Amino acid sequence: MSKIVLNLCLIAMCISSASADVSTPLRDLAKKHRLPLGSAAPIDLLRSEGDGGKFPAFLSQEFNLLEPENDFKPPTIWRGDKDFHLDDADWLLGKPGEKGWAQNHSMRVRGHVLVYARDDGYTVPRWLMQKEAQINADQARDLLHDYITMLVGRYRGKVAMWDVANEAIDDRPNQNPFNLRNSFWFRKLGPEFLVLAFKYAREADPRVELYYNEYGIEGGGPKADHVIELLKWLKQQRAPITGLGMQWHIDSGLSLAPGDAHYQFADRVKEIKLGFMITELDVAVPVVSRKRTDPDYGMTPRDPNDLQAQANVYKEVFEYALSYSNCRGINLWGFNDRHSWIPGFSRGERGAATISDQSYERKPAYWAIWHALSR
Ligand code: XIL
């Protein structure tokens, strides 16, 4: 080899290793795979420069996608008949014709969620539930149309993807088509509410990606079977659906390997020619039990070795995602243990589910993702 060629090779090696040294943030690594990489985040922690500015800084440094955690849910936005709370959404995305925090930080936004298809305080606006007896099917259709048209239309071209419907399928068997939950929109419109929601969203934004999002289906089973049937039916009905959002709220005890039930389920999604996203990944570990008022509530793993197991699970999920050409992105459900929903959700039994600790130190899980994306 001539001296010049040798030198060129050495320079090329330096460049390629320099392009992925440990200071390379995850978003830059993900970009090489053309994979949007995001996290859920509450808008108020961005607006208030949470944790002395560390919260927004970590988010915008490491991710190129952001999903407001609760701020785009119907009960937050839809405060009454034609009464919408859009202040936080406008701050994030800009009022019509303006830019917001997301664009100023080169972040795309994942909208969550147009129809949260179960009856809970955080899913359907209370005022709407209270008026249920006076709302007939035509009125329900109009309400759904007007809400989706308003929200998707207002942020047309600014939101990259929407969860059109979330958690519409029951965990336990019932008699409904596709085992759909007995929810407000189902009672009014039957399964058709799902088709309509997708169509209304598409009419309001011709380019935005549109997802059906669900939990507890990643590893197959009866609920996953219902999801596949529902997705096939939605396609037959010409609902403009981009793909399936799989939440992936999992535990550090999970194991994942090519060919297993997780891969088989993703294969089935591919067979029906849909994309998919991992939309709400977190990996919970058992934690030391503490009072809710304790600042370390839900923070301390009972067994420190679990952090390594957790890292391995994150790695395996990323490898799985990267192995599918129809995987359209990965979104974490939070990136900092202090702000994760898991301790509250599991009543302090599990926690420490994210990739950074209370002091924003990167955990083994962060580096596991970093390495998975560096390949
Ligand atoms: C959770 C939020 O993280 C919590 O802050 C809130 O109290 C309840 O909802 N699946 C979803 C998300 O689709 O909307 C949920 O978010 C977590 C489970």
Describe this structure in words.
With 375 residues, this protein is α/β, with parallel strands linked by helices. 41% of the residues lie in helices and 17% in strands. It has 16 helices and twelve strands. The strands form two sheets. The chain has an eight-stranded parallel β-barrel with strand order 1-2-5-6-7-8-10-11, surrounded by five helices. Strands 3-4 form a two-stranded antiparallel sheet. Helix 9 packs parallel to helix 11 and helix 14 (306-322) runs parallel beside helix 16 (364-374). The longest helix is centred in the middle third of the chain and has 18 residues, at 137-154. Bound molecules: (3S,4R)-3-hydroxy-2-oxopiperidin-4-yl beta-D-xylopyranoside.
Rg, Cα atoms, Å: 21 Å
CATH class: Alpha Beta
Q: Give the rounded overall mean pLDDT.
A: 95
Order of strands, main sheet, comes to 1-2-5-6-7-8-10-11
Query: Share of helix among residues?
Result: 40-55%
Number of helical stretches of at least 4 residues: 16
* Shape label: globular
Order of helices and strands: HHEHHEHEEHHEHHEHHEHEEHEHEHEH
Largest sheet: 8 strands, parallel, barrel
Bound molecule kinds, no repeats: (3S,4R)-3-hydroxy-2-oxopiperidin-4-yl beta-D-xylopyranoside
CATH superfamily: Glycosidases
Map the helices and strands.
Elements: H1 3-18, H2 26-32, E1 37-41, H3 43-47, H4 54-62, E2 65-68, H5 74-77, E3 78-80, E4 83-84, H6 87-93, H7 101-104, E5 108-116, H8 126-130, H9 137-154, E6 161-166, H10 184-189, H11 192-204, E7 209-214, H12 222-236, E8 243-246, E9 249-251, H13 261-271, E10 275-286, H14 306-322, E11 327-332, H15 342-345, E12 350-351, H16 364-374
Parallel strand pairs: 1-2, 1-11, 2-5, 5-6, 6-7, 7-8, 8-10, 9-10, 10-11
Antiparallel strand pairs: 3-4, 10-12
Helix pairs in contact: 9-11, 14-16
Bound molecules: (3S,4R)-3-hydroxy-2-oxopiperidin-4-yl beta-D-xylopyranoside (XIL).
